[in-house]
Specification:
Elements (H helix, E strand, L loop, with lengths): L9 E3 L1 H6 L7 H8 L5 E2 L2 E2 L2 H12 L9 E3 L3 E8 L5 E9 L16 E2 L12 E2 L11 E9 L14 H30 L4
Antiparallel strand pairs: 1-4, 2-3, 5-6, 6-9, 7-8
Helix pairs in contact: 3-4
């Protein structure tokens, strides 16, 4: 399991990717080949935004589990998508327990619960819906959007699976993870405070 800290939401794990590869080279490469239809448009290479979306989606769970990119378990999902202006954005969903709110909802409704499989040594608990259904629940989730600058995206030079496409996908995924860690992590940390 990758070692997360307050500065990371996404970790790219090249060592595990090579170590768990059936071909001895790259497990991510095999997943790209398996999802090759996501990496071209009528046989032509994708535009940079679409390439970033396909590369990120393929590198993360649930497509690749465990992922080439591992996202901190309390941030699910962390997606890349195209906004209505055609640019790329991260979208992170962050569950907020009532204690993190300025005022608790009236009537004492049920709240998110910590995952029963959560190990006390883990710093960032995963929140799940309450097991009880005998009273109302108010499950607060913050959606955090972060623009992704065009400068970290790249135009792929091929649509064919193989080392070139994989290296280009690796390059954009690493840039996306770095951008998320640098700019999205502080936003998430501010939301969670020390309540995580």
């Amino acid at each position: 399991m990758p070692d997360f800290n307050r500065l990371t939401l996404a970790i790219v794990d090249d060592t595990a990717d090579r170590g768990n590869a059936s071909d001895g080279h790259s497990r991510y490469d095999a997943y790209i080949a398996r999802h090759v239809d996501d990496f071209h448009e009528d046989g032509a290479p994708l535009r940079p935004v679409d390439f970033a979306i396909a590369a990120w989606r393929t590198a993360t769970a649930p497509v690749m589990a465990p992922g080439y990119v591992t996202v901190r378990r309390d941030i699910q999902p962390l997606d890349v998508y195209r906004d209505h202006h055609g640019g790329a954005q991260f979208c992170a969903k962050v569950g907020l327990r009532h204690a993190a709110l300025t005022r608790r909802p009236g009537g004492r409704p049920l709240d998110w619960e910590r995952d029963p499989w959560f190990h006390p040594s883990e710093q960032w608990p995963v929140l799940v819906s309450p097991d009880r259904t005998d009273r109302p629940a108010v499950l607060v989730t913050a959606t955090v959007l972060l623009p992704i600058p065009d400068g970290i995206l790249l135009a792929p030079t091929t649509a064919r699976p193989g080392r070139t496409l994989t290296e280009e996908a690796r390059t954009v995924v690493a840039a996306l993870a770095e951008h998320a860690n640098r700019h999205l992590t502080p936003l998430v940390n501010d939301l969670l405070g020390d309540a995580s």
